[in-house]
Amino acid sequence: MVGEVLLVLTLLLPVAAAFASLRLPPGEALRTSTAVALVLVGAATFAVVDVELPLIAGRALEMTRIAQLGIQLEALAMLGLVMGLHGATDDTVTRWLPVAWTSLAGLAAALLINSLPLGLIAFVAAALLWAFGLPEGERGAAMGAVLRYAALLALVIPLLLSAYRLAELRPDAADKGSIEQLVLSLVVPAFALLLGLIPMHAWVLTLASGAPRTMLFGVLSLVQTAGFALLLRTLEDLKWLTATATAPLIFGGAVSAFLGAWLALSARLEDPDDWLVYAMVANSGMLIVGLGTQSRVAAQGVVLMLFARVLALVLLAVGRRVTGMRQRAASAVALLTLAGTPGLAGFPGLWQILQKLAGETAGSTAPVPFGAPAHLALLAASALLFATALRRWSAPPDPIVASDRPDIGGERAVVVLIGLIVVLGLAPQLVSGAFARALSDMFFQLN
Amino acid sequence: MTRALLAAPPVLLGIAALIAGLPVPLAERWRRFAPVAAAVCAVAAAVALAWTGLLGAPPVRLLLSPWLDQEGPALESNPLVAIALVLIALLGLASAVRALAEDAPSPAPLAVAAAAALVASAGTERLGLVFAWIVLDVSLALVGGGRQGLLAGQTGLFMLLAGLTGARRFYLEAASLVRAGMYPLWWSVPRSRPAALWQAVGIRLAPTVAGLAMALQVITPSRSEAGMSAATLAPGLVALTFGAVLAFFARERTAAQDWTVTAHAGLAMLAIGLVDPAGQAVAFVLMADLALVFAARYAAEGLGAGRTVRLARWIAWASLVGLPPTLGFAGRWTLYHQLLERQAYGPLAWAILMSALLVAPEHPSWLPSPRARRTTPIAAALPLALALGSVGLGAAFRFLGPIVAASGGDLPDPLRLIGARPSVLLFILVAPAIGWVARRVHVRAGLRDRSQRARRLLRLREPINAFGRVLLRGGEVIQLRSGLVAGRRSLALTLLAVVATSVALLGSNGPRPAPAWPPVGQLAALLVALIIVGAAILPRAPAATLGALGAAYLLGAAVILGSDGGSRGVIAAIKLIVGLIVVSMLALSVLQAPIDRRLLAAARRLGRVQAGGGRRWSERLVPALALAIVALVGIGIQPGILAPYVGAGVLRVGLVLAAGGVLGTVFAASALQLAACVLIALIGAEAIYASLDPGLLVTGGLAGFQLLFTIVASFFIGQLPVSGGASAEPARGDVVQVQAEVV
Q1: pLDDT in tens, A199-231
Q2: Less Cβ crowding at N or C end of chain B, within 10 Å?
C-alpha cells in the first residue's frame, strides 16, 4: 500500500505543484515548489521498487530502479531550477514554474510507464511543453530556436518507435543480426539527437542563442537528464543492445567529449551560455563512452557522473543569483564538476569509466573497441574543460541579477552546494551504493 | 603507529603553514616559533618512519576514503617514500627557520612543502597520487604559480590519470617530469620571486623532490625489462640541456638559480633513465644532493655576504661542480661511471658540457644578490648547516648503502670505483674550466644583450601561447563559420548527421533483394505522396501548405486502411479525425481569427492569404532536386528484412512522406510550413509503424502528440521573427501577410 501511495505521489506531486504555481502568488509559489521538490526527492528515494499500478491494455505504472533514479535526479534538477528562480521577476516565475512542473510530471510519467513507446511519446510531449512558457514579447525572437527544437524532438519519435517495435519482433525474426543492425541504426542517432551529442547538437546551441535562459536550463537539466534515464531504460529492456552498440557508443561519445570540450574552450568570453552548452555536450559524451564499455563498474560511474552533472546545473542555476567572487566560484566549480576534475563530484565517475575503458584493466581478453583513443579523448576533454574554467574566470560576470540587494539565501546555497560537491568528490561512497543498485537489472558483459 | 608516522609529515607541515598564515590573534613569538616546532616534529616523524623501514617494517597502506572495492585515496609507506618525506620535511623546516630572519612569518613555502609531502607519501597509490597532486597544484597556484602554472600542473595531472588508468607508462613518466617542474612544462612549479628568493626552498625544491621521488617509483620498475634506451635518457638530457643553457644566459639571479635546479633535476632524471638499480641509486643520491645544496643556496639569499654565508655558497658550488667530499661528487662520479660502463659516450660528453655551463662563474654585477635584511644567528647558520649536510653525507657515502638498497637502488662503493677508473675525476674537474671559458666568450661577444629573444623562445612561453591561440581560433572557426548557429543550415547539418549516422551503422552487410519496378498502383500512390510533399515545400501560400497537410492525412489513412490485419479501420479513422483537427487549428492560427459559422467565407479568406514573398526560381531548385532524390529512393526501396512485417507499397509511400517531410523541415520558409512538414514526416513514419504495431494505445499517443505539436506551432504562427511580439489581430476581411523567413 505504501509503495502504491509513493508511486502515485511521484506522479501527482508535480501536477499539484503546477496547479499551485498557477494559483499562488509568485513568492509563495516558489516556497511551495521548493518544499514539493524536496518531498519529491524523498518520495522517490523511499519509493518501493517494482510496485505496479495497472492502467489499461496491460500497461501499468511501475517503479523500476531506473525510474526511481531518474525521478530522484529530476526532482533534484527541479529544486535547482526553483532555487534559480528565487529573485527573478514575478512574470518569469508565474510563466515558467507551472510549465516546469507540468513538464516534470510528463517526464516522470515517461519513466514510470511500463511501455517504452508510450514512455517515449510522453517524454517528447513533456519536452515540448517548455515552448508554452515563452512570454508574448519573446516568442518572435525565440521562434526559430524553439521551432527547430520542437521539430527535431518530434522527428526522434519515428526513429525510436520503429526501433522499439523491431526490437520486440527480434526474438522471432529469422535474421536477428540484420534486425539488430537496423535497430541500432535507429536508436543511436535518435538518442544522439535527444542528448545533443556531436554532430547532432546544433539544436541545443540554437536554443541557447534564441530561447530564454530559464528554458535552456530546464531543457538541459530536466529534459536531458530524463533523456539519459530513458536511454538507461532502453538498455535495460533491450539487453542485447549494450553489446551491439559498444563501438558506436564509444566512438561517438569520445568524439562528442573531445570536440565539445574544445568548442567550450573557444566559446566567446562575452557569451554567457555557449560554453555551458558545449560543456554539457562534452559531459554527455563522457557518459555515453561509459555506457559503451559494457562494464558494470563504468556504468556506476556514469550514474555518479549524471548525479554530479545535475548538482553542477543546480549550482549554476543558483550561482546566477549571486554576484562577484561567489558567482565566479559557482561557475568554475560547476564546470570543473562537469569536467570530472579530481576533488569534485564528477571525478569518481570519470575514474571508474577511465579504468574500464583501458584494455589493460578491463579484465577482459578482448579490448574495448576504440578503448585507447577514447581513453585519451576523455582525458583531453577533461583537460580542455579545466582550461575553459580557468579562461572563464576572467569572463564578464553574468548580468542577469534581479535585485541589487545581496541575496543571502543564494550565497548560502552556493557555499552549501560547493561543499556538497567537494564532499561527494572525496567520499562518493556516500551515494554510490544507492546508484549501483539502480543498475542491478541491466546487462553487462564485464564487471 | 607506522600509519600515523606516514600521515604526520604532511599534516604537521600543514599545521605549521596554518599557524604562520591564519589571521588569528596569536603572540608574535608563537607565530614565529610554533611553525618551526611543527616542522621539527614533521622531520622527526619522517626520520622515525624511515628508521622503521630500514629495520624491515613491512609497507603499510593508509586508506583515507574507501570508494569501491577497497580502492580510494590512500597513502603508502615504503623506504623511498620515507626518505623523500625526510628530505621534504627538512626543506619545510629550513623554510620555517629561514623565515625567522624575515619581518613576518611566511606560510607559502610551508604550505607547498606540506602538499609536496602529501604527494611523496602517496607512494604508488593511484588515487592518493591524484588527490595529492591536485592539492599541490592548488597550493602552488595560490602561492604564485597563477593560472598558467595551474594549467601546466593540470596537464601533468591528466598525464598521470592517463598513466594510472591506461596501459601506457609513458604518461606516468611525463607526469613525474611535470611534477618536478622540469623542462618543457617547467612552469608547473612557479618561478621564484626576487623579493623573496629564499622561499624557493619550499616552493620550488619541495615539489621537485616530490616529482623525482615519484619518477624513481614509477619509471625504473616499469622500464626495467626494456632497459636503457634513447627514450629513457631523453627526458633527462632535455631538462639538463635547456636548464643549463637558460641558467647560463639568465639575466636575473632568480632565473639563474631556478634554471640551475631544473638542470640538476635533469641530471637526476638522466640517472633514472639508466633504468636499473645502479641508476636508481645515483638518482637517489642526486635527489638528496639537490635538496641540500639548493636549499643552502636559496636560504643564503638575502642574508648578506657574511663569512658563514660565503662559506655556505662556496660549499654548495663545490657540490654542484662535484668536488670531493661533497654528496655532489658522489652523485656525479657514479653517474659518469655508469655512463662509461654502458659505453654511452655521447650522453656522457653532453652531460659534462652542460654541467660546465651550470658551474660557469657568474659575473657579480650581472646577478646581484638581494639586499640583506635583518638576520638572526640561527637563520644565518642555516645555509651553512645545509651545505655541511651535503659534505657530511658525501664523506659518509660508503655507509649509505643500506639506505639506498632499501629504496630499491644498488649503490657502488665510490672509493673502489675511483681506484678502478680514476679518469672520471678528470671529467669532473674539466667542467669548471670549460664553464670559465664559455663565460669569457659570452662576455666578450656581448651575447648577454642579444640573447633576449632566444631566451624567450627557449622558455617556450611563446610557442605554447601561440598553440593556445591556434586552439582557440580553430574552435571559433568551427563554431561560427560552420553554420552551426545559423538556423536553416544547422537544421540541415543535424538531419544530415542523423541520416549519415544511421546509414553508417546500417552498413552494407548481407545480400540485398533484387530491385524490382513497383506496380502501377504503388507508383500512383508514390506520385500522390510526392505531389503532397512538393505542395508543402515549394509554394509559400498557406492554403497550399494546409491543403497538402490535409491530403497527407488522407493518404496516410488510405495506406493504413489498405494494409493487412489488425484494427486498421480504427487507426485510419483516428488519423482522419486528428488530421481534421490539426488542419483546422493551423488554419485558425493563420487567419488569427475564430472561424464562425461561415466556413466557406473562412476558406476563401484562407485562400487569399499570401506569403510575405514568393520563392525565387533558384530557391525552388534545391528543394525540387532533393524531392527528385526522395522519389528515386521511394521507387528503389525494397522491404528487405522488413518484408514479413511491412508491405512494399506502405513502405514506399511512408518513406517518401517521411523523407519529404524531413526535407521540407529544412527548407521551410515559415512556421506553418515547418509544422506541416514535421507532421507530414510523422504521418509517413506512422503509416509504416502501423504495419509493425497495430496497437491503439500508441496510435492514440501519437495522435495526442500531433495535437500538442500543432498547438506549439500555432503559438508561433503570426509572430514576427526578429522583433518579437505578436502581429496585431487582423480585421475579419483583411489578408494576413505570413512572415517570410523565420526558421
Answers
A1: 888 888 888 877 888 888 889 999 999 999 999
A2: N
Q: Measured between CB atoms, does B511 come within 8 Å of chain A?
A: no
pLDDT in tens, A250-300: 999 999 999 999 999 998 888 878 889 999 999 999 999 998 888 888 888
Question: For chain A, what is the radius of gyration of the CA atoms?
Answer: 21
Q: What pLDDT shows up at residue B742?
A: 38
CA–CA separation, A108 and A68 (whole Å): 9
**Model confidence pLDDT, tens digit, residues B298-320:** 998 888 778 888 899 899 989 98
Question: Does A4 score more than 80 pLDDT?
Answer: yes
- Burial of B635 per CB tally in 10 Å (0-12, 13-18, 19+): middle
Q: Is the peptide bond between B184 and the residue preceding it cis, with omega within 30 degrees of 0?
A: yes
Angle between helix axes B648-667 and B487-506 (nearest 10 degrees) is 150
Q: Does the distance separating the beta carbons of A189 and B473 come in below 8 Å? A: no
Subunit contact A157:B722, Cβ cutoff 8 A: no
* B231-274 per-position pLDDT tens digit: 788 888 999 999 999 888 888 888 888 999 999 999 999 988 88
B494 reaches A (C-beta below 8 A)? yes
Chain B contact set for A265 (CB, 8 A): 471-472, 475
Integer Cα distance of A399 and A396 in angstroms: 8
CA angle B586, B485, A377 (to 5 degrees): 125
Nearest to B721 among A143, A354, A429 (CB): A143
Which residues from chain B sit within 8 angstroms of residue A175, using beta carbons? 510, 641
The single-letter DSSP state of residue B300 is: H
Q: Is A114 on the interface with B (CB under 8 A)?
A: no
Cα A361 to Cα A354: distance, rounded to the nearest angstrom: 9
* ipTM of predicted complex: 0.88
Between residues 60 and 99 of chain B, which touch chain A (CB distance below 8 Å)? 65-68, 72-73
Single out the residue of A67, A153, A226 nearest to residue B498, CA to CA: A153
Q: Which of B677, B668, B679, B670 is nearest to B708 (CA)?
A: B679
* Mean pLDDT for chain B overall: 81
pLDDT at residue B136, rounded to an integer = 94
Which residue type sits at B687? A
Do residues B182 and B265 touch, judged by C-beta distance below 8 A?
Answer: yes
**Calpha distance A132→B339 (Å, rounded):** 76
* Confidence band, pLDDT 50/70/90 cuts, at residue B741: very low
Q: Do A266 and B161 touch (CB under 8 A)?
A: no
* Residue A403 contacts B, CB cutoff 8 Å: no
Average of per-residue pLDDT across B216-231: 72
Interface subset of A 256-275, CB within 8 angstroms of B? 259, 262-263, 265-268, 274
My answer on whether omega of the bond before B539 falls inside 30° of 0, hence cis, is: no
Whether B701 and A118 lie within 8 Å, measured CB to CB: yes
Q: H or E element: which one contains A60?
A: strand A60-62
Q: Are B681 and A158 inside 8 Å of each other by CB? A: yes
- CB count within 10 Å of CB B676 equals 33
Of the candidates B460, B569, B441, the one whose C-alpha atom is nearest the C-alpha of residue B188 is: B460
Q: Does A124 touch chain B (CB under 8 A)?
A: yes
Query: Measured between alpha carbons, how far is residue A195 from residues A74, A154, A202, A275, B342 in Å?
Result: 15, 14, 11, 16, 58
Contacts of A380 in chain B (CB under 8 A): 158
Please state whether the peptide bond connecting residue B325 to the residue before it is cis, i.e. omega within 30 degrees of 0: yes
CB-nearest partner of B725 from A136, A192, A274: A136
Q: Looking at residues B467-473, what average pLDDT do you find?
A: 89
Cβ proximity of B110 and B225 under 8 Å? no
Q: What angle do CA B719, B724, B729 make, to 5 degrees?
A: 45
